[in-house]
Amino acid sequence: MRIRESLMVFAMGAASLCAAEFTLKEGKFEQTVDIKAVAVPESAVEISISPKAWYDYPVDSLAEHGRKVKKGDTLIQVDTEKLDQAILEAEKARLVDQMNLEKLKQELAELEVNTKISLDEAQRNYERQKQDYEYFKNTELPLMEADAQLTMDKYQWRLDNEKEELEQLLKMYKADGLTEETEEIIVQRAKNSVKASEFDYKESMLAGKRKLEVVIPRLKKDREVGMQRETNKWESLQKSWPRALEIKRAEVEKAVRADQRKAEHLDKLKADRKAAELVSPVDGYVYYGEFIPGGWYQDAARKVLYKGGKLPGDKVLMTVVPEGAKFELEGKANEWQVNRLTENLSGMASPAYDPWKRFEVKVSDVTPVPQKSGEWVIEFNSEQMADSIVAGSSVDLSFKSYVNEKALFVPPAAVTSLPDGSYTVNVKMADGKTEAKTIKVGQVTSDKVEVVEGLEAGQVVIYEEKK
Fold it and tell me: Which regions form coiled coils (predicted)?
């Protein structure tokens, strides 16, 4: 408790304050800590639902608070019609998915075989095309070029021969000096042959030149392009067909994972269906809510525990307290209280319903740090607990945290707190004047401040108090 600062005001005309005297004498000084506690069972079974996939749990019926139940009795009857329908639809959908998965696996198996066969066949065709092209380039093409050149040469040779024969005939007939009719015919025939050979030679030169300069280069280019096309095709097939196989494998793996997820989802739905059967695991009594450190909390549970209410997941809905369960008391203390409640400190307890029925209790445990509320949880035990106390009963506790049979104390209004942290009181001297005396403060209550140093019994303290 903070000590109230007291300022001495000497204006005797103040309407709300008046001077008061307090004579110090030895007396009993007690500091009491009062705590409200709740009876908490040492063993209890919390009832909750932890859904994995389904979150719609409407309440159809439920056991009343305080009802005595047997092991296996239904505590909360959940309407599972929608959940049952979801399970049925999931089973049917998975059956279709499994058939589709088997189809994909069969397609993959066939593709595994056919891809190898097709690649082998494509490789053979490519190797043949490559061999044919090499033969064309290295053998057929030079032969074609040589053939074209030879054809032109042959016509050249023929023309030269025809001209030579004509020239020889003319020389021979000229030497005879006679030209018979038959010889003229032979000469004319030779001239015709030369003329025909000249035409054939000219024609062969044009044809041969075109073949060498146009036809053969075109054919060569066509075969080169064709070979490049076959090469590109083969290189593409080496990538595309295995890629198609990998894609199919990925499709199967994806389908397998999807099937596994759906199987897991179905298992979770079935587990949620089983978890929706909320029955009592022991013989005992039904409590709505839960026993948390420091008390019994039921407000959140009562918001959903009614017909038509929706059960939340992972929240304690009920607690079943077994028959014959032992109890301990738990309460919450503020910082001032917890610093005065030491372990094994004895105190007195009385049920809230009967303040005259008292029994002894002891502090058994104190949490080392405060809870979210800023309060500490304290546990108490007793070997004399009233038989009528049940789980959730409120109990008032009182502890004497400090007792001094021969203490000196003054009213809180008489003590002045100084900025340096010291405390003073105004003491009446023998001459009637007052003098500020520094004191050392001990324990404090709402109406007393213990003085452990600075004053003696018999001294009179002057202070102002309200009328």
Answer: 94-176
Listed in sequence order, the residues at least 6 apart from 150 whose beta carbon sits closer than 8 Å to its beta carbon are none
Instruction: List phi, psi (to 5°) of 332.
Output: -120, 140
Q: How many other C-beta atoms lie within 10 A of the C-beta of residue 177?
A: 6
- Residue 233's φ and ψ, nearest 5 degrees, are -60, -45
CB within 8 Å of 32: residues ≥ 6 apart: 398, 399, 400, 401, 445
Query: What is the CATH number that goes with domain 84-272?
Result: 1.10.287
Q: Which one-letter DSSP state was computed for residue 311? A: P
The domain limits of the chain are 1-42+326-467, 45-78+277-325, 84-272
Asked whether this chain's domains 1-42+326-467 and 45-78+277-325 adopt the same fold, the reply is no
Q: Which two tokens stand for residue 56?
A: 């719609």
d(C-alpha 451, C-alpha 340), whole Å: 19
CATH architecture designation of domain 45-78+277-325: Beta Barrel (2.40)
Helices (H) and strands (E) in the chain, counts: 6, 21
* Contact predicate 352/367, CB 8 Å: no
Cα→Cα distances 26→264, 372, 440, 459, Å: 78, 43, 16, 11
Write the CB contacts of 452 (distance below 8 Å, at least 6 apart in sequence): 408, 440, 441, 442
Q: List the structure tokens of 383.
A: 């070997």
Pure H helices in 214-297: 216-275
Q: Is residue 460 within 8 Å of residue 22, measured between CB atoms? A: yes
Report which DSSP code applies to 310: B
* Residues near 213 by beta carbon (within 8 Å), at least 6 away in sequence: none
Work out the widest C-alpha separation in the chain, in whole angstroms: 196
Report which DSSP code applies to 369.
S
Is CATH 2.40.30.170 the classification given to domain 1-42+326-467?
yes
Tokens of 387: 């038989």
